[in-house]
Amino acid sequence: MKKYLQFVVLLSIISFATCIKSQDSNISSQKRRLHFDEKGEFKIIQFADLHFGETDLKDLLSVSLMNYLIEMYHPNFAALTGDMVSGYAWDNTTTFYQRNWKKYTSPFGLHNLSYSIILGNHDDQANLNRTQIMDLDMTNPHSYSNKSVPGLPEGSNYYLIIYENATSNVPKAVLWFLDTHDHECEDNTNSWGCIQRIQVEWFENEITKINKQYDNLLHVAFYHIPLPEYVTLYNNYKVYGTRGESVGCPQINTGFFQTMKNNNVRAGFCGHDHNNDYGGFIEGVELVYGRKTGFGCYGPQQDKMRGARLLHLNLQGNQTPSFYHEILQADGTRKQNGEATYRYDKDEEACGSTAGLQYPDTQPKTKRRSEL
Ligand SMILES: *[C@@H]1O[C@H](CO)[C@@H](O)[C@H](O)[C@H]1NC(C)=O
Ligand SMILES: *[C@@H]1O[C@H](CO)[C@@H](O)[C@H](O)[C@H]1NC(C)=O
Ligand SMILES: *[C@@H]1O[C@H](CO)[C@@H](O)[C@H](O)[C@H]1NC(C)=O
Ligand SMILES: *[C@@H]1O[C@H](CO)[C@@H](O)[C@H](O)[C@H]1NC(C)=O
Ligand SMILES: *[C@@H]1O[C@H](CO)[C@@H](O)[C@H](O)[C@H]1NC(C)=O
Ligand SMILES: *[C@@H]1O[C@H](CO)[C@@H](O)[C@H](O)[C@H]1NC(C)=O
Predict the structure, then answer these.
(1) pLDDT digits (tens, 9 = 90+) for 287-321
(2) Atom 3 of ligand 5, residue of closest alpha carbon
(3) Ligand 6: residues within 6 Å at CB?
(4) Probe residue for ligand 4, chosen from 124, 127, 132 as the CB with the greatest number of ligand atoms within 8 Å
(5) Contact criterion met (CB below 8 Å) for 366 and 298
(6) Residues ≥6 apart with Cβ < 8 Å to 224
(7) What is the pLDDT of residue 7?
(8) What one-character-per-residue DSSP string does 260-272 give?
(9) What would the pLDDT profile of 71-80 be if each residue is shown by its tens digit?
(10) CA nearest 225: which of 78, 75, 42, 368?
């Protein structure tokens, strides 16, 4: 608990600031174009696995941590990469998701911060299905979320263009959001969910069109469940960060990584495995975990603080924007990724069967395997 002392002290300051600011927190903000700021920067904060809905105290702490990191680091955008709500903690009311959605989106009204969501495997386990959650989120003036186009599986598949500046019509970066669903990948019912082949085809069509039209775009992707290549990465390539549990990836490879690579996507960011925050490169494509943000459910690992990942995108004239990222921790410190190294332990249990899977109760679990 000691490591949260500073955070708890700050909590009271933040609550005070919240009182002051809430007077103008409902200023309506029109849907705007996303663009690099006056400094030529676009900073994205990735909130991973917020897990609202378990207890009021945990929700209060999660909101406070989000507010704290936003106030401290002033991102231009927030990407919520799934499992914003612990659907398994459903109280059987028809307002459960809506109430928790109000909580987890409150920092964006307070700070006038644009954001968007993708769905995890737990979001749709309560009273709203995937389409209904996306419809709800799209009513928020700060939300840039979008639904899958007709023909794709229901949920969160879309992209957002970041323009050069407030007035320019020149796109400089594209953020891709892909829905990995719940369980089942293609026809394998024993698997974690995945980006299905039909989504990969949609993605390939769209990105090909965009890359034909514009040069030097920076492409970055977000999805909840890690790709099978996260295992390949850990077992065979140099990685930075921590692997605290087996990778919960699908058992089928639907080719998303290869399609990212073929179309110049620079990096992909996931959540899902709360005790993992590692990343590294395979053939020029960086695969990265976020840092567990929310106080619900298990993780992060006991020697780690909750936090978020901050992506820095920077304009480079006519070149492709440059890009790096780091972890923001709950005590306000930032943690660089550090040097990547080969690891001697191997992930032998990855992409394991989800047969017999039981949803965790609201007690934090120390090991993910106990959840399976
Ligand atoms: C904020 O909301 C309140 C109550 O809904 C309303 O009376 C007020 O005019 C709103 N303020 C702004 C600035 O929109
Ligand atoms: C919700 O309803 C189910 C089925 O009736 C029941 O088993 C469960 O205990 C209920 N949950 C709560 C939190 O009331
Ligand atoms: C909210 O942010 C947008 C730009 O992101 C800006 O245009 C707008 O003026 C801001 N609104 C307030 C109330 O600060
Ligand atoms: C989700 O809910 C909407 C509205 O009730 C309904 O039209 C749609 O068919 C549902 N989707 C699924 C997959 O059940
Ligand atoms: C959602 O995506 C569709 C299809 O790409 C696009 O036509 C529409 O403008 C998007 N809506 C929003 C609110 O971004
Ligand atoms: C936006 O970019 C265009 C094209 O590079 C440039 O002409 C214009 O001055 C820029 N505007 C601002 C506000 O920086």
Answers:
(1) 999 999 999 999 999 899 999 999 999 999 999 99
(2) 149
(3) 164-168
(4) 132
(5) yes
(6) 81, 82, 83, 118, 119, 120, 121, 179, 180, 270, 271, 272
(7) 59
(8) HHHTTEEEEEE-S
(9) 999 999 999 9
(10) 368
The pLDDT score that the predictor gives to residue 21 is 39
**What is the pairing mode between strands 239-240 and 279-282?**
antiparallel
Do residues 85 and 98 touch, judged by C-beta distance below 8 A?
no
CB 250 within 8 A of CB 352: no
Residues 192, 181: Cα–Cα separation, whole Å = 8
Task: Please give the distance, rounded to the nearest whole angstrom, from the Cα atom of residue 131 to the centre of ligand 4.
Answer: 7
CA 72 – CA 333 distance, rounded (Å): 10
> Which candidate, 4, 19, 98, 14, places its Cα nearest to that of 64?
14
Tokens of 224: 């909840």
Q: How far is the CA of 112 from the centre of ligand 3 (A)?
A: 6
- For the chain, the average pLDDT equals 89
Pairing of strands 279-282, 285-289: antiparallel
pLDDT at 24: 38
**Domain range annotation of the chain:** 47-344
Amino acid at 205: N
Indicate whether residue 158 lines ligand 5 (CB < 6 A): yes
Q: Which CATH number, 3.40.640.10, 3.40.50.1970, 3.30.70.890, 3.60.21.10, labels domain 47-344? A: 3.60.21.10
4, pLDDT greater than 90: no
CB 290 within 8 A of CB 46: yes
Residues in the chain: 372
Give pLDDT tens digits for 75-114.
Answer: 999 999 999 999 999 999 999 999 999 999 999 999 999 9
Question: What is the CA(155)–ligand 6 centre distance, in A?
Answer: 36
Q: Choose one of 92, 93, 127 to mutate for the ligand 2 pocket test, by most ligand atoms within 8 angstroms of C-beta.
A: 92
Residue closest to 252 by CA, chosen among 177, 346, 184: 184
With CA atoms as reference, report the closest residue to 359 among 58, 87, 81.
87
What does pTM read for this prediction? 0.88
